[in-house]
Design brief:
This protein has six helices and 17 strands. The chain is of the alpha+beta class. It folds into three domains: about 55 residues, RNA-binding S4 domain (Structural Genomics Hypothetical 15.5 Kd Protein In mrcA-pckA Intergenic Region, Chain A, Roll), CATH 3.10.290; about 90 residues, Alpha-Beta Plaits (2-Layer Sandwich), CATH 3.30.70.580; about 80 residues, Alpha-Beta Plaits, CATH 3.30.70.1560. Helix 1 packs across helix 2. The longest helix is centred in the C-terminal third of the chain and has 10 residues. The protein is elongated, with a radius of gyration of 22 Å. It holds the Pfam family S4.
Length: about 240
């Protein structure tokens, strides 16, 4: 939602204070102040980028969009809802949880590592579409040692059932059963299928980075934090958008 004159109930719902119905109850209870005055009318219009907004005595900072970095643990699915398994949204603390957050790309249920979530559909599209050439960096452990020929095949673009992959960078680490991989696309089970096409199997997979953002080393599996202004700016610049 862009800044400008908006209904206060819509603004508060956008900021995560509940549904429009819940927000109206909050307003009627006198829990909201605008520029120091209690506001009870849900239809009151204001510019959230200019007004001083307080909810339950706390100043609320206006954000057009919300962005979260999650260290996705193994065992949860990259979805907003699932009838059988815990989802990445279930990992978020109440302070970060929002129904309109969407995962940027997809990590398999048994894959862990960096997962970004955002409310900005335009940013999500550019971060995931191959046209924008946003690199995704992975660390993988393999059943069999990788070979220099595998790195050459990845660089040339492996052929999967739906067609040829974009060229990828495969770096063999000191132990060739451990590799670093850079992709510029995100097909279904792509990393596992690429190694399977070379007669190998991935036993462990972790995403380390998306574009200019690396997984925060302070985060543990299942932990999340809001992206800071500098990280958000780098992310938008990487795909040619304005924050």
């Amino acid at each position: 939602m862009a800044a400008g004159l908006e209904r206060i109930d819509k603004i508060l719902a956008h900021l995560g204070f509940g549904t429009r119905k819940e927000v109206k109850r909050l307003l009627r209870a006198g829990g909201v102040r605008v520029d120091g005055r209690v506001v009870r009318d849900p239809g009151m219009k204001l510019d959230p980028a200019r007004a001083r907004l307080e909810v339950a005595g706390e100043v609320v900072v206006w954000q057009r969009h919300h962005h979260v970095m999650l260290y996705k643990p193994a065992g949860v699915v990259t979805a907003t809802r699932d009838a059988r398994h815990a989802t990445v949204l279930d990992c978020l603390p109440a302070s970060l949880a929002r129904k309109d957050l969407l995962p940027v790309g997809r990590l398999d249920r048994d894959t862990e590592g960096l997962l970004l979530l955002t409310t900005d559909g335009a940013l999500l599209h550019r971060l995931t579409h191959p046209r924008w050439k946003v690199p995704k960096v992975y660390y993988a452990e393999l059943e069999q040692p990788a070979r220099p020929e595998d790195a050459q095949a990845f660089a040339e673009g492996l052929v999967l059932s739906e067609g040829r992959c974009l060229p990828a960078e495969l770096e063999l680490l000191e132990d060739p059963r451990r590799v670093r991989l850079v992709l510029w696309e995100g097909r279904y089970h792509q990393v596992k299928r690429m190694f399977a096409a070379r007669g190998n199997r991935v036993t462990y997979l972790k995403r380390l980075a998306v574009g200019p953002l690396e997984l925060d080393p302070k985060l543990k599996p299942g932990e999340a934090r809001a992206l800071g202004a500098a990280g958000v700016a780098r992310l938008y610049r990487a795909v040619g958008l304005e924050p």
